[in-house]
């Protein structure tokens, strides 16, 4: 099914999505994207439905053709301080702050959001598989976060973040059991090395 370009047609819309909410380690990233009315790409979809190579192919296309886009992050320290849900909202707010065009409406992936200034918002459950702007935001948030975690891997190779990106895979949990937590782990999460692996979801 083709993604929809607009929720409504009177106001400029910014699609917003986050990546890394369910991770044991690293920041949560968010992106905000305003697309033109005629934006089209046959492969655009929810980032979770795309292979990694396709996400990275789509990123420069989105950045080139979007009217405005921005990516922001909130650290693991801040996540521990305010909780992951509020940190996800904050990351989206920070991304919207950076947009070179002010949207008239925010399309939010999910069922909850903390209002941003005086801009109305619409929450859309599984919106990254419905609206093009949210799908585009999901791809930017995911790829920029993956890049960040891959860079961290060089300093903490035993956690295998280049492969698991901070999610609770068996390898990651075994490394936590052996080496303990590092400065990038989220202390507020109940990390039990014996629990089942966490799926790669956002």
From TrEMBL:
Localization in the cell: Cytoplasm
Domain RNase H type-2: 11-200
Pfam families with a match to the protein in the record: RNase_HII
Keywords linked to the UniProt accession: Cytoplasm, Endonuclease, Hydrolase, Manganese, Metal-binding, Nuclease
Keyword Hydrolase: yes
CDD domains in the record: RNase_HII_bacteria_HII_like (cd07182)
Cytoplasm found in the keyword field: yes
InterPro entries: RNase_HII, RNase_HII/HIII, RNase_HII/HIII_dom, RNaseH-like_sf, RNaseH_sf
GO molecular-function terms, A-Z: manganese ion binding; RNA binding; RNA-DNA hybrid ribonuclease activity
GO biological process, one term: DNA replication, removal of RNA primer
Homology family: Belongs to the RNase HII family.
Protein name per the record: Ribonuclease HII
Organism: Flavihumibacter petaseus NBRC 106054
